[in-house]
Amino acid sequence: MFLQSIEKQSVFHSSIPLVPMGKYAHFVVLRETNSFPLFRTDEVLNFAQVSAGLKTNEIMSRIVVFKRKQTTPERLTGRELLRRYNLTTDEENGDKERYCEYNSERFCKHCPDCIYYGFAIGQEGSERSKVLVDSAFSLSNYDESHQSMTFNAPYEHGTMSKNGVTKSSFGEQDHVLPQIFFPSIITIRDPTEAEFIYVLNNILRTKRYGAQTTRTGTLENHIVAIAFTDGEICSNLKLTQKLYDQLDVNDAGQIVKGPYQAATLIEKAAKILPMLLKEDRVTTHLLFDGEKLNTLIEEVGEIVTQEQTLVQVLQQAYSECENYAVRCRPPRGSSDEKNKAKKATKTK
Is the per-residue pLDDT at 158 higher than 60? Predict the structure, then answer.
């Protein structure tokens, strides 16, 4: 319906299946920091000690960006578009069927965000995410990837003193430096065409990640490749370690430290991907990289930058998710529905 450069029947479903059907779309992404983002938990950056590469026993400390710090900004990008074109609403007194409140017990349970990315509302039900994401690890080590910076909160006249009293609003935070790369794989399980475009558009549009996104956190997502397979592929850590093994070395045989250039890393990552896919023992139906990838990205760009076709994609995605939600509900008179009604009566 939308994409002409993909053999849709082999990689997309016509509707969202109720059970896993073995079709996977993988976005291989290099996340590049373009400012000083804050990926923190309890005021400190998260890091892990892991092997530097697959060919070495050297241990390296790497910054870790947990999964929710990646998916939440992308989900909010998609939800923003759904509200803009009146497919969902945040006004509780408006259309109750389309009222959807993020990260609460007021998910609508049938919009693209709820169905694609999942939700959990206690006894009210849950939906497992069809977008699979894992923690990402910095390509470079912790020491060369972050910097501790002090901050203050001056008065309006620009100093920290007022009426002879100096404020104590000083602090220190660890920031990730610019041009730090986090290789990441985002997987859609059993995608439809509209779902594929919706998720890819969220990845390409999202520009800010981490804490304090109104002041910092700019990040660019470089799509290295898109692979359609019949199973899951390697982890983010393995991809990072494999890419680390491909970095240039100096005369002493040591890895040349960053900052690295995005174009060089994209080329190296695309080169190792076929080897990783072979090691994963999956059947690769389609692999888009290089010129084929550029053609696909440009085609998606044409769709999502024209309001008419963008709205058509969103409406198609919404219609598919509504249909899926209806098929997931137990039929009237079934034992599941009766048990639910009994629980509701007891609660009252």
Answer: no
Q: Are 259 and 147 in contact (CB under 8 A)?
A: no
Burial class of residue 202 (count of CB atoms within 10 Å of its CB; 0-12, 13-18, 19+): buried
Measured between alpha carbons, how far is residue 288 from residues 28, 138, 235, 284, 329 in Å? Answer: 10, 24, 19, 11, 37
Sign of CA dihedral 329, 72, 269, 275: negative
Cα 175 to Cα 216: distance, rounded to the nearest angstrom? 10
- Whole-number pLDDT of residue 250: 78
With beta carbons less than 8 A apart as the criterion, state whether 223 and 29 touch.
yes
Average pLDDT of span 142-163:
66
Please give the sequence-ordered ranges of beta strands (E in DSSP) within 200-283, or none if there are none: 219-229
How many Å apart are CA 42 and CA 233, to the nearest integer?
32
Sign of the dihedral through C-alpha 147, 148, 150, 151: positive
Question: What gap in Å lies between CA 29 and CA 233, rounded to an integer?
Answer: 14
